[in-house]
Amino acid sequence: MNIVIRNVLLGGILCLSVPLAAQVPQDLIDKAKAAGMTDEQIRREMNKRMGQSGMEQATRTASEAVVTDRTVTLSEGKEMPSLDAQREANRPAGDLSGTVFGREIFSNKNLSFEPNLNVPTPKGYVLSAGDELLINVWGDSELNLKLKVSPEGTILIPNLGPVSVSGLTIETAENRIRQELGRIMSTLSGETDGANTFVSVSLSQIRSIKVNIVGEVVAPGTYTLPSFATLFNALYAAGGVNEIGSLRGIKVYRNSKEVAKLDVYDYLLNGKYNTNIRLEENDMVIVSPYDQLAVVQGKVKRNRIFELKKGETLSQLLNMAGGFTGDAYRKDVRIKRKAGSRYQIATVTEDKYPTFAMMDGDSLLVDSVIPFYENRLTVTGAVWRPGEYELNGAVHTVRQLVDQAAGLKGDEFAGRAQITRLNPDFTTTVIAVDIRGILNGAAPDMELKPEDQLSIPSLFDLREPYTIKVSGAVNYVDTVLPYRNNLTVEDAIMMAGGLKESAATVNVEVARRIKDTKTYENTNRTAEVFNFELNDNLGLISTDGKKSDTVFTLEPFDEVYV
User: Fold this and answer.
1) pLDDT for residue 6 is more than 80
2) Worst-scoring range by mean pLDDT, 124-138, 288-302, 516-530?
3) Rounded distance, CA 124 to CA 437, Å?
4) One-character DSSP codes across 172-228
């Protein structure tokens, strides 16, 4: 389906609030058919959009009904589309607003700049035609009125006649209305010393205003906004700035005079919101092209493209990027800069960061610290605290390093240790160490160098694990047990879960590896087999029947078969 037509239909559906059948103008349907869509495709597309639009409309209505009945109306009496709807109608599908820092706030669907209508009326709010005032009088007299400001700028109070309020702030208008009501209510607050009648004036319905947004925005044009709308609200409705639009100098003109200049970076980086002024009827918002862009890469917290004003320095750019990361090299940075028809590399030292002026197209690279230690020693193996240690005046020999690691564990293979030393060309050399001799004083201690790695092997690392295997008619078949000194056949059977009911106790075999091959050099035997019987208590009985309670101690790699 043509994407343009789909977006056209979507814009029409989202921006209107009447039933769907009347929402899509006939010219849009004709355009869709001209693009090749069938009636069935148009109907399915309308049904799909109806479900989405209805859900959004229900959400907005519910949220407004909970807190207040204040509404926004157009001059024609229709409900004004939300800023979200206007923004979505102007947002191309899949548009991510590039990678320039700050532009994403206008495309982030989780960040809404919809004006809050449920706040107390600002005292500085200027009334105009279309506003509706809520006048409450209480005390000795009671009166509740909802009066709309006429195109002539007046409200009509019963029994008083028209009162001019257009151009007045809500606070000034309240004083004027109080003064006029005092003509018919003698006890109104402020008119006599014994006043016990009071009046308050607030907005029950605010007017809509038209604002012109031009320049480098996604969708320039004239927008209908609530009279509470601010500059951010207007930019949000227009889809934000485009690929060349500036975030640093957005201007607002009122009656041909500049009244505000917004720097979005002040809001994003410093939380300053004072230039986000409230807009008025026929205000002009102008977004100019950017002055400078600079790319920041490397060990900073924000690797982005940043918009710069002329004259901003390297220090300011680094602040925009969130500063250095913990592993950044801070003494100097490199900048790639266009110089005529070629590029140049500039190295800027730390003392020049505050004065080095950035230029358009600059690319900043922040390096990391070199992943090399100047004073590291490493010890591994049979010590209590293996790891990395500092090479210093107190630790610079093999013995001192072993002592720093809390000494040997006791399972060390003391006959030989190794030092792996890094050569200047980054090759390595292995140096044998008589660890026993050094610790006993029989051999001279050895000086260490940066990046030396001392490895003291454990006896357990130099041999295969000692185990005992139990198989046959036991409950845990083929159990492999870690070898322990003084482990007996009975112990091994118990650790394998005991005997099964089908176990034959008259023949228990223990197979043992032949380690002394000289004794059996004329045979092919690899194991020696011992046979035993078991009594009711799992005790061994020798096969000659003459000796009971035989104790047979197992050795590493013995295999017991029942």
Assistant:
1) no
2) 516-530
3) 90
4) HHHHHHHHHHTTT-TTBBTTBTT--EEEEEEEEEEPEEEEEEEESBSS-EEEEEETT
Residue 9: which pLDDT band, with cuts at 50, 70 and 90?
very low
Rounded CA separation 67/47 (Å): 32
- Domains in the chain, ordered, with CATH? 1-67 (no CATH), 132-206 (3.30.1950.10), 292-366 (3.10.560.10), 376-462 (3.10.560.10), 467-561 (3.10.560.10)
- Label residues 168-186 b or e (16+ Cβ within 10 Å = b): bbbeebbeebbebbbeebe
Residues paired with 447 in a beta bridge: 397
* Segment 192-196 long-range contacts (CB within 8 Å, at least 24 positions apart): 196/139, 196/140
Q: Which two tokens stand for residue 80?
A: 């004004």
- In the block, tokens 């940075």 appear at 333
Asked whether the beta carbons of 421 and 449 are under 8 A apart, the reply is yes
What are the tokens at 222?
Answer: 């004239």
For range 315-319, the mean pLDDT:
97
For position 107, what pLDDT does the model report?
Answer: 77
pTM of the model: 0.63
Q: Which two tokens stand for residue 324?
A: 């250095």
